[in-house]
Write a structure and sequence with these properties.
Length: 252
C-alpha cells in the first residue's frame, strides 16, 4: 500500500445549528487521484476549506505527510506543498497569463509576496522558462502575453491550474476543475491531469461530471449530508445502491 499523503480524522464542522461535516474520515494515498463526489450541499467544498486552513474544524485533525495541518494558516499549508484550484478562479486579471504563472513561483522563492514583485518578472529567466512550459501544458501558450481578465471562464480555470503547477505541490486539491468548460476543453483538462498523475503528483478532486470522475479517479469517496456514505474503486462506487440513491439517481 502507498504511503498516506492526506489523512482526515473524525472531522466535524457546524455553522450555527447546521452540521456541515460529521465524523469525516478520509485517507488519500500517495500518487493517487482521489475523487470526492456528492450532491449539492453535501459539504465537499467545506471539506477542502478545512484541509487548506480556510476553515477550522470544530473537532478532528488533518495531517499531511504526517504533519498536522489543523490550526495552520493557509499560506503555511501552501508552503508545505498543498495547492488548491478554486471553484471560482482566483487570478490577477490585469496581469498577463505569463505573469500570473510566474508570480506564485517568484513569491515562493522569496518567501513572501512583495508589492513590486511583478516589476522584475521579465528578468527571472529560469522561472519564465518554466512558466512558458506550463502554459504550453495547459494549452494557453499562444495567449501568454494576453491579459488574464479577457479569458473565458474555462481558460481562467486552466490558468489557475498552471499557477498551482509552477509551485510543484506534493498534493493538488481541485474543486470542480472542469466547471464551465466545453466537452472539448474538459477532455483536454482530463488529458492534462493524467499527465500530472504520470509525474507522481497526488490529487484530490471534487467534481460533478461523472465522465471526469470515472476517467481520472483511482478511488472515490461519496459525501452526503456531511458524512461519507461509501468509498472504494470507481466501478464499485458506481454500483453501490446508497450512491445511486443519494447522488447518481440510479443512472448508469
Amino acid at each position: 500500500m502507498s504511503d498516506l499523503v492526506l489523512h482526515l480524522d473524525n472531522i466535524q464542522k457546524s455553522f450555527g445549528g447546521l452540521s456541515a461535516l460529521s465524523d469525516v474520515n478520509l485517507h488519500v494515498e500517495e500518487g493517487t487521484t482521489h475523487a470526492i463526489i456528492g450532491p449539492n450541499g453535501a459539504g465537499k467544498s467545506t471539506l477542502l476549506n478545512v484541509c487548506i486552513g480556510r476553515l477550522k474544524p470544530d473537532s478532528g485533525h488533518v495531517t499531511f505527510k504526517g504533519q498536522e495541518l489543523t490550526g495552520r494558516e493557509p499560506h503555511e499549508i501552501a508552503q508545505m506543498g498543498v495547492a488548491r484550484v478554486f471553484q471560482t478562479p482566483e487570478i490577477f486579471p490585469e496581469m498577463t497569463l505569463l505573469e500570473n504563472v510566474m508570480l506564485p513561483a517568484f513569491s515562493k522563492r522569496d518567501g513572501a509576496f512583495k508589492l513590486n514583485a511583478y516589476s522584475g518578472l521579465a528578468q527571472q529567466g529560469d522561472i519564465r522558462d518554466e512558466a512558458e512550459h506550463i502554459l504550453e501544458d495547459v494549452g494557453l501558450a499562444d495567449q501568454m502575453l494576453q491579459e488574464a481578465g479577457s479569458l473565458s471562464r474555462g481558460d481562467k480555470r486552466r490558468l489557475e491550474l498552471g499557477m498551482c503547477l509552477i509551485l510543484r505541490p506534493r498534493l493538488l486539491l481541485l474543486d470542480e476543475p472542469t466547471a464551465g468548460m466545453s466537452r472539448h476543453d474538459t477532455n483536454r483538462t482530463i488529458d492534462l491531469l493524467k499527465k500530472i498523475k504520470s509525474r507522481g503528483m497526488t490529487k484530490v478532486i471534487i467534481e460533478h461530471d461523472m465522465h471526469v470522475v470515472f476517467s481520472l479517479a483511482d478511488k472515490v469517496s461519496v459525501l452526503a449530508r456531511g458524512e461519507i456514505i461509501a468509498g472504494g474503486k470507481p466501478e464499485d462506487v458506481r454500483e453501490n445502491p446508497k450512491v445511486k440513491e443519494a447522488y447518481l439517481g440510479g443512472a448508469h
